[in-house]
Structures are given as structure tokens and as C-alpha cells.
Design brief:
With 353 residues, this protein is mainly beta. Helix content is 5%, strand content 41%. The strands form 7 sheets. A 5-stranded antiparallel beta sheet has the order 1-2-28-27-26, with no helix packed on it.
Length: 353
Amino acid sequence: MKNSRRSFVKKTGAAMALGASGFSFNIISNTEKAPLVIGQGNFRYKVHKDWGRQDPAKYPVKDCHEMVQSSDGRLFLLTNETKNNVLVYDRSGKVLSAWGHSFPGAHGLTLCKEGDREYLFITDLSLHKVYKTTLDGEVVMTIPYPQESGLYRLEKQFMPTEVAVAPNGDFFVADGYGLQYIIKYDAQGNLLKVFGGLGSGDDLFASRWTAHGVCIDTRNSQDEPKLIVSARHENLFKWFDLEGNFLYQVNLPGAYLSRPVIKGGELYTAVLNSEMPWGASNSGFVSILDKENQVMSNPGGTAPQYTDGVLQRMKQQEKVFIHPHDVCIDGDANIYVCQWNSEKTYPIKLERV
């Protein structure tokens, strides 16, 4: 004890002497360690891994698939845990409410606004259906497998992964884990058109498990809205007009793409690192593209590099994420990252710096 006390007094005296000599210093405890900062350029973020963490006995999750934010600032997280399919957070990470016990294959979550009201679209892989609900979980529309299209023999062939809603209320369903068709409905749920798909001859979705996500691109107000489809295994985003005609594509080498998310002039997406074996841990990052669809930053991944205008292969750099599956961007440009197959982890917050 005496030796320890003598050592402490000696070190304290030396520190005081340094202070008297004009040097300043700070003592930072391990518990006050500065958060990790990831990303490049003007899109850099502090990592808050514990932001969404909850008591799993009270609010359990399995796969945290997707998240959206309502106009009043609440954050809605979709999980395939039927004890509470939807957790509703405030921006501090507090759970305000929870609902949903009927979606064992919950995968896609999309927010849409109709007049003064907002609704959610939930896709369920296990039930082979799409549901439209209120923000409190009341089901107001159910879309079964599109038997009337003549393209599906069995219900189980339909495994919808995502919904995108056009400005006029028409909506598009991506059958990402099924036959790869993009199915267009009117606002009342009447089938209008089907395009893409396996074996359709247009080679838009040539391999299985590719048409994973969809969203409406309205970033250029002078153009007609477009539909973006993530062709996951091809590492491509593909743009279509709203009648299903292919327009162009953008390659993101090294990235198994989740759905595209538009916020302001940027396109965000969570990606799996295709450099790693399928299902490997710590395998992903976030990509952020500008209005010209050039990658500006890869939080958690290598800095984007272009050679003669061609984006070079990207990969994970910091081991922050485990299978990132979706991103949600709030009004302050912070990012919330959902993860699947990640040991039942809750969303991670990336605070814009």
C-alpha cells in the first residue's frame, strides 16, 4: 500500500510540475473513450452502437430488417420477432411503443403518405403477402400472391422483399426472394403490370435473389419519377421508368446491395461485402451516392476510388457492422443501420459530424 501511495504522489507531482511549466493535459478514462468516426469527405459519422439496445426480455428482436421515420420524428423498426414485429423509437433510442404479432417473415418496411395520414407497407416472406397498415398496426389492405398475372403457379413462389410507392399512389412490389418480378399495383391494390423476373427473356434479373429492394427516385424535379431496383448479386442499381422500361444502371463493385434510400439529393444503401463468404460475420458497410450517382462515402468501408471514371471495387474496412440490411436517415442526416443475422442486435446510430 505504501509503495502504491508513494507512486501515486510521485506521478501527481510530476503532472503538476508539467502544468506549472505551461503544458496542459487531460485525463480520459476508459469509459469516456471517444466514439469511432467512420466515413470519408463530408459524410463522416460517430458510431453509437448502443443507441437502440433494449432489454431482450421486454423487447426481443431476431433480424432487424428495415426502419423508417414518420413525419412526427418517430422511428419504426421492423423485425421478424412476433412478440413485437414493430418497435417504435424516439430519436434518443427510447422505445415508445411496440406492436405486431402476425408477421413471422417480416422483411420490407415502407412509409407512404396519403393526405394527412401515413401508412406502412410490410412484406412477409413466410406468409407470401404484402400488408398495408396504419402507424398503430391496423391492417387496411392485404396483397396476396399475384395469381391473376398467370406467372405464379403456387403461393410459395411469391416472396416479396420490398414496396415502393409512386407520387400518384401506385405501388411496386419487388419479389426479391421469389421469381424476381416487379409487380405494379394501383392505390387500391389492383394489378397493373408485371416486368423483370426469372426467365422473362429481358435479362434484367438473370440470377436468383437479386431484385432485393426498390424505391422511387424524385431527386431531379425536372424529370419524371423513376423506379430504382437493387440487383443485389450483380452489384447494380437499375433505373426504370414507372411503366417498367429499363433506363440505365450504376455498378457498385464489391457491394451486395440492400434497398436504395433517398434523402435530399443523396442515395443511401446498406451493403454486404461481396469479398467475404456469404454469411460471414462483420461483413458490410454503408454507401452514399450523390445526385449523379457517384459514390461519395462508404462509412465502415474503404474510400471510394474512381479510375478513368470507373468505380473500383469496395470492401469493408472497419469492423463496425454485422450484415447491415437497411438504413434510415433522420432530419439531421444521422443514419440508423439495421442488421440481420447479427446475433439479435439492435440498430446502430451513425451521428453526422
